[in-house]
C-alpha cells in the first residue's frame, strides 16, 4: 500500500490569486498542496474567489469546493486564517473586521516573522495604476487574459497526451512582452517604497501573478504568485526563513501522469 508523504510543517503560508470560479484556476494543484501542509498562520492574500468572473457566468467544480473545505478545516484546527480581499473578490471588503467560520477578514496585515522582522501583507491592487484609475481598462485586460488561459488549457491538454508535465504557456507569453516586464518592475518598486515608508522590513503581496523574492530599495519584496499560472506559495519556516514553493515544479512527474478531473457542468448565471 502506497503511504502518503508526511505533511510539511511551516510557521506561516501565504497564497493568493487562486481565482476560484474560473476555468483557469488550478484548484486541483492547490487541493494537493493544502492536503500536504500544516501551519500556524495561513494568509489568503486576495483574489481567492473571482467575483468578476462569477458575475458574468457561473463555473464551480468539485476541486473548488474542496479548496474551501480544506481552508475551513485548517481554521477549525488551530490555524489562524487571515483573508485580505483583493480586487477580484472586493465584495468581501464589505465584511472587513468580521470573522466568518474562523476566517478573519482584514484590509491588510502586519506579519511578524519568527526572527522579529515585520512585513506589510497586502494584495497590492491599490498600487496598480490600471486597477486604481481605469477599471474599464482593467476589465478589458482581464478579458484578454482569459483568452490566454484558454489557450493555456489547450496547450497543456496536448502536453498531457504526450506525457509531458504542466507548463504555463500564458505565463511565458506574459514574460515576453516588454511592457508587462516594465509594469511588474513598477509594481514591485511601488510596494517596496510603501513598506519602507511605513518602517517595515518588507512587503508580502500578490495581484500580478508573478512569484518573486528580492530586495528592492533596502526592503524585502515577496510576491506569493498565483494558482492559475505558476501554482506557487510563499512559506515561512520556524526560524523566520522564507521560501517560494513551486508546487508544479516539485511534482512534475506525478502531475504529468495524472490528468485533471473533468469539471462539473457549468450553468449560466
Observed structural traits:
single chain, 21% strand, globular
Structural features, described:
The protein is α/β, with parallel strands linked by helices and 269 residues long. The chain is 37% helix and 21% strand. The chain is built from nine helices and twelve strands. Helix 1 (27-35) runs parallel beside helix 3 (62-76).
Task: List strands and helices in order, with pairings.
Layout: E1 8-15, H1 27-35, E2 37-44, H2 51-56, H3 62-76, E3 80-83, E4 99-100, E5 103-105, E6 109-112, E7 118-121, H4 129-133, H5 135-161, H6 169-176, H7 178-197, E8 202-205, E9 212-216, E10 219-223, E11 232-236, E12 242-246, H8 247-250, H9 252-257
Helix pairs in contact: 1-3
Organism: Neoroseomonas eburnea
Protein name: UDP-2,3-diacylglucosamine diphosphatase
InterPro entries: Calcineurin-like_PHP, LpxH-like, Metallo-depent_PP-like
Amino acid at each position: 500500500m502506497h503511504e502518503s508523504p508526511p505533511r510539511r510543517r511551516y510557521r506561516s503560508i501565504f497564497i493568493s490569486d487562486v481565482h476560484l470560479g474560473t476555468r483557469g484556476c488550478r484548484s486541483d494543484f492547490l487541493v494537493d498542496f493544502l492536503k500536504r501542509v500544516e501551519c500556524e498562520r495561513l494568509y489568503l492574500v486576495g483574489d481567492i474567489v473571482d467575483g468578476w468572473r462569477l458575475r458574468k457566468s457561473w463555473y464551480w467544480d468539485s476541486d473548488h469546493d474542496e479548496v474551501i473545505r480544506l481552508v475551513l478545516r485548517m481554521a477549525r484546527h488551530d490555524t489562524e486564517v487571515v483573508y485580505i480581499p483583493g480586487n477580484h473578490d472586493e465584495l468581501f471588503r464589505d465584511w472587513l473586521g468580521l470573522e466568518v467560520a474562523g476566517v478573519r477578514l482584514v484590509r491588510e496585515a502586519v506579519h511578524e516573522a519568527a526572527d522579529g522582522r515585520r512585513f506589510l501583507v497586502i494584495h497590492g491592487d491599490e498600487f496598480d495604476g490600471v486597477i486604481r484609475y481605469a477599471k474599464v481598462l482593467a476589465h478589458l485586460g482581464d478579458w484578454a487574459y482569459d483568452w490566454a488561459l484558454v489557450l493555456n488549457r489547450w496547450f497543456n491538454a496536448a502536453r498531457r497526451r504526450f506525457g509531458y508535465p504542466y507548463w504555463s504557456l500564458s505565463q511565458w507569453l506574459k514574460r515576453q512582452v516588454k511592457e508587462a516586464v516594465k509594469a511588474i518592475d513598477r509594481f514591485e518598486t511601488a510596494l517596496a517604497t510603501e513598506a519602507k515608508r511605513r518602517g517595515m522590513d518588507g512587503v508580502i503581496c500578490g495581484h500580478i501573478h508573478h512569484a518573486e523574492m528580492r530586495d528592492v530599495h533596502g526592503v524585502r519584496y515577496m510576491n506569493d504568485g498565483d494558482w492559475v499560472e505558476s501554482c506557487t506559495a510563499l512559506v515561512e519556516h520556524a526560524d523566520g526563513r522564507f521560501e517560494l514553493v513551486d508546487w508544479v515544479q516539485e511534482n512534475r512527474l506525478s502531475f504529468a501522469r495524472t490528468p485533471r478531473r473533468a469539471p462539473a457542468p457549468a450553468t449560466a448565471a
